[in-house]
Amino acid sequence: MNIGLIAHDTKKKLMQNFCIAYRGILSKHELYATGTTGRLIEEVTNLNVHKYLAGHLGGEQQLGSQIEHNEIDLVIFLRDPLTRKSHEPDLINIMGTCDMHNIPLATNLATAELLIKSLDRGDLEWREMYK
Cα-Cα-Cα-Cα dihedral of 108, 48, 9, 102, to 10°? Predict the structure, then answer.
């Protein structure tokens, strides 16, 4: 499955730790991330991550386009709800597009862990038929 990974600046370390903890599961799938997040994940996990531009330089739009084309099966977007971003419309668009295309989306660690464990159990295999 194709997994999209996005993290606001204040959540990048949390994303790294999440990917370290679930490296075994993530290694079985294709990972896509905004530039800086992808690089940081690769540095600590040795996982291969397809990297877009940095989020504020258009990476979120690139990932959003892949979501719109139903090419992403799961999105983990660790966001900071307290800090407003200049590119907030792109982030809201990603969340709306996930809703529109029935793509599971986690915006916090608790939901991310539930989704990644569901993925490992095979609970998300319905995505293959949905494509």
Answer: -40
